[in-house]
Amino acid sequence: MEVTVRNKDSLWYFSQLFDIPFVLIEKSNPKLDAKQLNAGQTIQIPGYILSEYIINKEDTLWKIAIRHNIPMDALTLVNPFVNHYSIQAGQQIFIPERVNDLIVTDVDHYTYEEMIKAINQLIKVYPFITAQSIGQSVMGKDLIELQIGMGDKHVHVNGSFHANEWITSAVIMNFLNQYALSLTNNQSINGIYLLSLYIDSSLSIVPMVNPDGVNLVLNGLDAAGSFHDEVQILNHPEEDFSNWKANIRGVDLNKQYPALWEKEANRKTKSPGPRDYPGQHPLSEPEAIAMADLAKTENFSRVLAIHTQGKEIYWGFKNFEPAISAIMVEEFVRVSGYAAIKNLDNYAGFKDWFIQEFGRPGFTIELGSGVNPLPIKQFPAIYQESLAILLASLYL
Ligand SMILES: [Zn+2]
User: Fold this and answer.
1) For residue 208, how far is its CA from the centre of ligand 1 (angstroms)?
2) Looking at the structure, do residues 18 and 51 belong to the same domain, yes or no?
3) Digit-coded pLDDT (tens) for 325-339
4) Which of 20, 154, 303, 323 has the least C-beta neighbours within 10 A?
5) Structural domains of the chain, count
């Protein structure tokens, strides 16, 4: 919600007026000098929206404020041209309304476009969340990274490396929404106050690493553009794409990293296909490159790659993982009920490379159980398990 500064207003005053943590208002207005507000400037207040209201015969601004549980001055602030003493029936005013519910509720059929829509909605209500493009998919879709938090503990989470695991994107977006909602409303989740996590950590999120693949799984050949004929042949004799894991060129993005890549390449399929092809060489695909570059520039303290399925957490790679990884995975297991597996006969994944390259904790989390793509009716259960792990990744 946007408000216009009056004489003598301050960010501190807005924080009190709307009962929103000061730091969130500050972070929602990054270009602003908090000490030097000028009348007429516009300020973003996170966690609120403006709704329109038509004055009734019996109304006074006072009564409207009481009814909506907001201070009288919140109402005058957003209606600078309304004269308190002479409001008239039929007149339209604005009412600042606290957002008390999740915005990202549509979690089925979670295409790239659905995700972009959710990102735009979230950023509008919670401008302390920032978004940037970290590269483009083969078909030119921006790969979006979202950031929330201001601490030194730099946690990274990604989803949908594999196309038919698109439910992970919805899980991560839902988590981001719940995080922001709990921040502005100063709520705890299972006794954990999100504001302290926000201050101690910075969370980087790439909710959909493989958007071309996700859209192919969900929308079929219509989503393949100039790759229409190619993917049809690669997928033969299958006609639907629900088993497709790769990117649009038939490369498995989670077998693209220079961490025993040759071992994987020698024993896996030698040509593009719906799954398992590691590519002609490591980091041949723009999506995999973008993720490697991101990890190099952002100096993550830990990474979580979210996949489906198996209710398992992989946490080792050739003993390059630090001692703290074992402690972290123990907590993930405790809160989720998932099984910890140290080493897996599976290489060249993002978390393998991260552990090898940086010697820091990296995890692959396999959500839920069943056959990919997991049915959407599993979403609530999967979400709760993920929530527990994601929160732990921030407080540990
Ligand atoms: Zn996967």
Assistant:
1) 12
2) yes
3) 999 999 999 999 999
4) 323
5) 2
